[in-house]
Structures are given as structure tokens and as C-alpha cells.
Fold this protein.
Amino acid sequence: MHNSSCTVKETARKILESGQAERLLGWEQDSSGYNHAPAVFKSAGELDRFIYDRFCGSNLSKLLARLREAEGRTAVLLKACDRESFNLLVREHRIDPEQVHRVDIECSGMVDIEKLRNKGIKGIREITESGDELHISTLYGEKRCRSEEVLLEKCLSCPAVSSADAFDAVGQMEERSSLERYEFWKEALSTCIRCNACRNSCPVCTCEQCIFDNPRSGTAGKASADFFEDQHFHLVRVFHAAGRCTDCGECTRVCPQGIPLYLLNRKVIKDINELYGELSLEDKELGKGALTSFSFQDAHPDIIRKRTGDQ
Amino acid sequence: MEHRVYSLPKKRMGELFGLISSSRQLFLPMEKGGQFQFSRVDEHTDLEGVSLDRLLTAGSAKELFFPQTQQIAAFRRRGKEIELTSAETLTSAFVAFGVRACDARSLEVLDRAFLGTPRDTMYEEKRSKGTVVTLACNEPEETCFCSVFSIDAASPKGDVETWIAGDTLYWRPGSEKGAELTQELDALLDPCSEEEPEGLIQLKQQIRSIIGKLPLGRLSLEQFRPEALQELFDDPAWQKLSEPCIGCGTCTFVCPTCQCFDIRDFDTGEGVQRFRCWDSCMYSDFTTMAHGNPRTSQVERFRQRFMHKLVYYPANHDGLYSCAGCGRCVSKCPNSMNMVKVMKTLGGAQHV
Amino acid sequence: MSNCSCNSTNALVPTIGVVTDIRVDTPDVKTFRVTGVQGGLCFDYVPGQCAMLSIPGVGEAMFSITSSPTNREYMEFSIKKCGILTDWLHEIEPGQQVAIRGPYGNGFPVDTVLKGRDLLFIAGGIGLAPLRSVINYCIDNRKDYGTIDIVYGARSAEDLVHIDELKTYWNSLENVSVHLTIDNPQEGWDGHVGFVPAYVQELGFDVDRTVLVCGPPIMIKFTLASLGELGFEKSQVYTTMELKMKCGIGTCGRCNIGSKYVCKDGPVFRCDELESLPAEY
């Protein structure tokens, strides 16, 4: 249904047939028609199961980092949103670019099946695409839906897909009073089940042992003993990712509880851009980051007091 | 003992909830941040948020009986002395309304795990105080496969079984506990004259006909027998199946039958609270000891989860599977790996 | 304080005990004597069973009880310093209270299978701890058991635990033989040198005995091979397992080997039974 779908599969075939890579990291088709899992393909023959369509939301960069011990080159398919995290993982030496055959692929936005369900669509049998509409054949009749209404959150701020401003929602949040914001997050994070899906799918989270798993860290809480624990977990994660988060949107996509984690990350990105200026690609390649390099032009730390004083 | 069927106009369900919550705590599936959760309802709750149309809550009804965190004991340490200051707290009587057939079966699975010898008194307490009111699934989802485990979503077993057929709520007590609750609601519930009203018969037929068409309804369990334990354990397919697994605990935490827990201490500054909290066999520290770990890779951890549900648990519990086919793992896994794919692959029908 | 008299039937709630004596066994093993706050045993048990010991706020872990239940005054635990809780325990002094719950597991079949039998105990390092409970139980009920042979080894002479008991008590008893070995020669050691499995083969026991083995997994593996060469069947050999545990009652889900829970169905397994389980331990 993607125009590029066949082309991507053909590219994958050529890579494996020609031996440009030992294996290819892509997606494997599921009989549901939408629940495709990331998969490693080792030969062109295995590509019968290959799929690239509207339901390949997962970012393969993180899985690629886990394959770094594998012998020989690995080919990986990168959507626009995944490329930044790939670059970050290369910069942080989690991926050896020499061992990777990188294939940039087109994407016109990925569908969020939860959003379809929230529209009351149940019992999905098949989803086809026609123009900008999805035709959903269900156990309870035929349904239609404009595809742009059910895209993943991350697609809504992707320049290739949407013209929306990624920071609009952050701006709206900033308009609220600190008490309102506190209540918002208290409610949103109260549903956190500490399953670690956000952390484990995050391309930035590649520590050998996370402090939240280390019994000697004193912070290895597996569940919330109180609300502070969940706040602590998410805020530490956001600050650990500050200046490194590429807004790939995986945390929000995978959260089983639908917590809008992207708001936290984008707030930090917005602040960094405002306070330190957007980093040039050159700076990034030099390993510079808002919190890892210093200049006298940087914002003075009292910005915190000034800001909180405003409210 | 066969109980009779009662009815109530659907539009009066608000009154029903009011009456239940006047004497017991009441939990209903409600929307919270775009997801559906069993939430406590009282006289101040806006019942607009109650959702009995949406099939499944994000987390299962197990949360009401086996909460994510539960205090075991509290201590105070002074010098060399340790004082045990308190143990578990007691639960008030509660009603869980709108529990689906799969979640109700899952409680049977948990019962066998927790109410053996010795009994888990914390679970037992919740179980004895909770009355489960099930609700038939008018519109099963394509992710459902409860029928594989001989669960009838058209007639969900519970302390009380209910159906919403058009404008009518049908109510049938299924246990002594359910009969007690029914008595308390005497003022609202109307006994039906027939043994099984026509509307109810039709609804059941309708549900069963949809279940017959579910794409996952014919998964085979034949392969998953205790005798095949070693063969399944050694199956090379685990390697490939576990490839997408990122080792998070989502599947285990949304699973209605996952029972594993950790015991942790939390130093409040004024004492130590010992609590238990859900744990996941998907986590590397689950089996890590000071001197090693019997499950060193995600392949082994992944295998453990599914072997437990499909082979180990049935081997210990008269062939009862520790899966109710609710499909939460199908819809919630970040990388789309789930019970169905495991069953299809190991069951012999690769990638159906 | 009389709070150890907590009547809760919750199996996860401990009672309070007190450490009355601490003995240094090796550079990294200490033996802790524990009684109830009012003295006496915190609970009854059979040899081979375990208990959960904890210091609230530090941690809780499962340890095998190394004393024999024929001792009605106290329980003993020989604990190797190897983690957060054990590091902490190695720093405490007598008088320290601990939280304790148990007993857990099946224990050795001292009153059934082992009765009337000639027994061969084979241990490596800290693995002597659970076997010591059985050895003393058999010695205290001497007429119920046949001859007792104890093969015990460690990395060095300093790493042999319960050395006084081995050399001066057990060795002095009739029909009890102690065979010690260390991995490498060292000054002042005139006993046997070599690994336990090889020593077992060297000693060449006849097969008319029941064997109890405990030690590091690698030692158990090679010992089983040695016993096999001597003609022993796996069904004559018992061992005791250690996996991570939290609840102790078969519900927390982490100590399983296939469908068996080590905390409940074990920790003692007959080796042929163990062999029929998936090799994930």
C-alpha cells in the first residue's frame, strides 16, 4: 500500500543477494496485517516474510545496537525519524558504522492502531489504503478513516508527513500554571506501571546497567512505593537524555498506558534550543551537546530562578 | 446450584452502581488518559467515563486482587534492634464490575498459584473480599483467542454474570457471594419470569457466531503438553522468536495471569516498608544472584515466560494453561512479539 | 521487645531473631548463630531446609540452615560474603537482631531413604553448609545410620569451613571418616591435594551407599561423572540447589527449573530427577 513498499523489498533483496550485508534488519509480516515485528533476515529467501507498510513504526536503530557483536555487516532500514537516533548511536560508539549498510527509506507516516481503536473501530480484519483514506474491513462491517487522523504521535511533527510544529503542545503546557502542570503530570504518571518499555526501546538508553536496575544504586525501584518514584524515574530519564534525545517518539509509541512522554522530551529539547541554540551537525559530530560542552555564551544557571520567579 | 436471571433497564445502571457503591467499594472500567483502567467509583465520580463498550482495560482485573505494590510489613531499626511495627492492611469488601471472561479465568489461574500450600494470605484476603461481576463480550476483537482455552465469552463465569442486550442489562448470580450481592440490589433488579429470556439467548448466539469467525480462534494447543517439555525447551525457534524482544516488562505487567513478584524494602526515613511488587521474568536481574545467573540472555528469559504459561504451569495444575487469550500482549508489545506468534511457531504452523 | 511473637499467618512476614554468636570460618565465610528473641529455635526444620534472613532496608536472602535440628538451642548459618546483604552481615556483632522466616524447601530424606544406609557426603567450599546439618543429624541419631564418609575440599586450607568440627569432632567418631583435600599444595598442609571429583575416584567407594553432594555447579558436574565411573547410579545421589529466591513458597516465580520450584519442590533433588529437568540452573 505504500508506493515505496515494493521498492524497499527489492532493495533488501539486492543487498542480501549481492552479499553487501550478512543480514538485514527489517520487519516481518504478521497475519493481523498490522502487528509486524522487527526481524533479522539472513538470506533473500527469507524475504517472503518481509514487509514494509504503514505499520512499521518501530525504530530499528536500538535493535541494531544490540547486533554489534554479530559477525559481518548488517543492513538496516531507516525511516526519517530513525536516522537521527542511528547517528546518535554512531556518535556514542554503540554502532560501528563500518559494520553497517545503511538504507534510508521513505515514509509517509505510520499508523497508530490504538488511535484506530479509539475511534471505535473493532475487530480489524484487513486495512487497505486508498488515497489519503484507510479502508478497514472489520468483523463488524467496513470502516473508513483518514490516515492522517490516526498517525503515530511522532509522525505528527515529522516534516515529511506533517507541517505541524512539534513544540505547539509544549507551548500550550507552558501556558499552564505550575500547579496545573503538576496536576497534569501527577495524573498522567499515576498510570505508569514501570514496565520499562520506554527505557528499553529508547535509542538513547544504552547503558550497560541502568541505575534503576542496579541494586547498589539505591534507586533500583521496580515499582512505585509512592508517586515520587515514578516522577523520579521519568525525570531522571529525561535529563539523562537531555541534548541526546532525537525525538524519535519510541517512548510514546510503546507506552502501554498511553502516557504522553514526548511532552517531557520536547520540553527539554525546546529549552536547550532556546538557551543554547540548536546544535549544528558539525558540533554534534564532534560530540558536543548542551550538557557536555561549555561556553561563556551559555545560559547562566540562575535562569531556573528567573523562570520559576515568573510564576 | 442454578440461579435465576434478573434484568434492569440499561439506562438505570447508574442507579445500580450507586447502590453497589453505597455499601462496597466499586471498580469499573473507566477512561484515564486515553486508556481504560479499572477505577474506583464513588458518589462523586462522573459516570460518563465508564466504558463498558470498550472490550479490554489496559491492565487486567488482576490488579484488584494482586496489586502492583502491596505492603507486607513495616520495620523500625534502632541500633541492633529490629522492631516489626505492622503487617498487611485489611481490604474492604469490593465489587469488580465489567470483568471479561478472560480476566475471570485468569483469577482461577492465580487462585491455583496463590492459594496452594502455604496460602498467600494477601491474595486470599483480596479474593475473599472481592465479588467479580463479569460482562459478556458483545464485540470480541481480532486479538481475542479465549475460545482456544475453552473460555466462553458469551457466558462468562463469575460471582455474577451479566449481559448488555440492547437496552437491557441481564444479571445472573453464579456463586453464593454473587447471590448475596444480588440480594442487596433487590430494589433494582427485576427477576425474569423465564429461565433464559429471549433477548439473552439471541445475544449469546450472536456472540458465539462472532467468536467462530475470530482469526485467532483456532490456534492449536496440541503441541503444548507436559510430555513435550524437553522438546519444546530445546526448540531452536526460541532464538528467532526472541529476537525482537527488548526485555521490557510490558507483556508481563498487562498479562492477567502473570504472577511473579519481587520483595523490596523502601526506607521512608522513619522506618522500612517491606513491599512486594510485580516483577518480570523478562528482566535480567530476575534470576541474577551474587555468583551468576541461570538465564544469561534474552532468549532464555523469553523462553521462560512462554514455557511457564504453556507447559510448566499446566504440568503443575492439571493441564490448565496460564493464558486466557485476552490478547493484551498482542496489542501491547512494543515490538509486536506475543503469545500468538509463539503458539503458531512452536505449534508447528510457522508464520500462519 | 516481644514483637517476634507476631501471629500473622502471612508466610512473607518474618519474625525477629537475634544473632548470639559469630564465628569466623574462612577469610570470606562466617557462621552466625541465631535464636528467637526469647532464646530457642525460631521454628522447627529438617536438615537441608532453608530460611530467609533479612536486615530490613538492606535486603533479604535465602540461606541453608547449617546446624542440625537435633540442636534445640539455636540455628546456624554459614554465610559467604558475596553481595549487599552478606557484606552487611559480615560487619555485624553479636546481639544484632535479624528478621527471619522459614523453614523452606523439602530437606534431605533423613527419616526415609537415608535411614539405615551407609552415607557418603561430598562437599566443596561453602557447599558443606547444608550437608553439615545432615551429618550432625545422623551423628546425633547414630544408630539409625550406617557408616559415614565425608569428602570435603576447598581452594586452600584457609577456605575449609567448620575445620575444627571436621578434624577434631567428626574424625574422632567411630565409623565416621573425614577425607580432606585442597586444590593446590601449600606450606603446612600435609593432607591430600587435588580436586574433589578426582579424590572421590581415588578413594574408590563401593556403590552400596547413598551419596549427598553439594558445592559449586562445576564441582557437582565432575563429581557426578566420577561417581558414575565408580558405578553409582544417579538415583543414589542427592544434591541441593541454589537459585535466586524471593518468596520461598513457590509463588514469586523465579527459582524454577522447568516446572519445579527449587524453594518448594527442592532445594534437595535426587540427581536422576534433576537430570530429567531442563538444564537451566
Q: What stands out?
A: Chain C has two domains: 9-104, 119-240. Residues 1-8 of chain C have pLDDT under 50 and may be disordered. The CA atoms of residues 157 and 188 of chain C lie 9 Å apart.
